[in-house]
Amino acid sequence: MFWAAHLLAGLAVVLAWPAPVALSRAKWPTRAPATAMILWQAIALAGGLSMIGAMLVWGLDPLGDNLVEALGRLGTMAISNEPAAELGLVHVFALSAAGLLSAHLIFTLLLTYAKIQGQRRRHRDMLNLLSSPAANRPATLVINHPTPVAYCLPGGARSVTVLSDGLLDLLTAQELDAVLVHERAHLHQRHHLLLWAFAAWRSALPWLPTSQLAQRAVNELIEMLADDEALKTVREPVLARAIAIVASGPLADSDGVYPSDALSTTTLTPGSPSGQDTGSTVNRIHRLLTPQPTLSPVQQGAALGTSGLLLVAPTLLLIAPWMLG
Amino acid sequence: MATLGELERTVMDLLWGTPGALTANALRDQLALATHDAVGKELAVTTVLTVLSRLEKKGLVERERETRPHRYRAITSREEHTAELMHEVLVTAPDREAVLARFIGSVSDSEAQALRKLLGS
């Protein structure tokens, strides 16, 4: 168990810092957002598991050769009210820390859920008063505001997509369809569950590089996933134009709409000459207009294999430490 | 029978469309006109009062207590509420990011400029 605890601690450190930093800098996730999403979930789950596991296994080390035996022994000690002398103060401390961290993670997850649900309920309440249903489009509301905005508010059967007047004025019917398919993809693919989990992960451990990087990455990846879903019904330039128009905000001069010719892709290169970050929206458009090849089966397999390994390794270290010899 | 949500909406529409304050009785009469069918006529004043007290709790409506019967008015205009709601949608804060999924995240000024150039405007 001694070595298992050290390996778990090592894994926890790698998953808390170098691994997420490397993944957040990688270029391939734009080519395979679904795979990247799985990898981020594996990093978060395995990270939490190895953090708690390292402390648990190390704390139980004096009590037995494996987790079940040691936990059994701990249970007997607790029931018969034996002094914890056999365990030692440091090990008691490690066990308490493992318990506290587990409780903290679960509590934050539930608290975040309650907060999000409350905010959604209030938002839906106000929408009920301020918006009107869109003509001929089910589960779609229109709100009277000049800023071009589109978003979806998840809520099971009451999920709605909200569009602003400003958006309806700027977009053609085709572009509007692109926006709606994109928003519905968020709802169909249950992206709100991912947003919830990673928001909780971040508010539980805000100082950890992994939780911040993961939330930012997940926010960008769900947009790419929804874009890809929209491309099943609309063409790339239409969606790209819709994104560009909405992102540009309201027109400064109110003399009408943007010229209807296609986007000039030549001016669009990620990593502008000035060297500053172009931002995720420009990257999203670039991704649509100059499609990159998807990952090869080998690369895809490597990424998924890594995800699987990340989950299996800490689990095995926890339940079967004797495999280390 | 209209749901409470629908009634709240209609009552707010009436209050937003009225410069002054209205009594519950006056509101009931206007509701009967606004809904055009039997629903409004069957509506009891107590139901209107229930709706009004719900709206009061939500901070949307205030009551003038000097007169009897009490008169009700909207606290802020529909436009201000809409602006507030849109602000909620557009402002990015880490603890709000999971509430809804926006088509476009926050865009920096330079990014918006680059996109406008791209669109040929």
Q: Can you put this structure into words, describing what you see?
A:
- The complex is a heterodimer of chains A (325) and B (121).
- Chain A has helices at 2-16, 18-25, 33-60, 67-79, 89-130, 165-170, 173-188, 191-204, 209-230, 236-248, 280-289, 297-319; strands at 131-133, 140-143, 150-153, 160-164.
- Chain A contains twelve helices and four strands; from the N terminus they run H-H-H-H-H-E-E-E-E-H-H-H-H-H-H-H.
- The N and C termini of chain A lie close together (10 Å).
- With 325 residues, chain A is mainly α.
- In chain A, helix 3 (33-60) packs antiparallel against helix 5 (89-130).
- A four-stranded mixed β-sheet of chain A has the order 1-2-4-3, with helices on both faces.
- By secondary structure, chain B is mainly alpha-helical.
- Chain B has helices at residues 4-16, 24-35, 38-42, 45-57, 78-90, 109-118, and strands at 22-23, 61-64, 71-74, 101-102.
- Chain B has a three-stranded antiparallel β-sheet.
- The chains are: A mainly alpha (325), B mainly alpha (121).
- Chains A and B meet through helix 5, strand 3, helix 7, helix 8 and helix 9 of A and helix 1, helix 5, strand 4 and helix 6 of B.
Shape of chain A: elongated
Determine the fraction of residues in helical runs of chain A and give it as a percent range.
Answer: 55-70%
Q: Per DSSP, what share of the residues of chain A sits in E-state strands of 2 or more residues?
A: under 5%
Estimate percent helicity of chain B.
Answer: 40-55%
pLDDT averaged residue by residue of chain A: 89
The low-pLDDT segments of chain B are none
Largest interface, C-beta closer than 8 angstroms, per-chain residues:
A-B, 66 and 41 residues
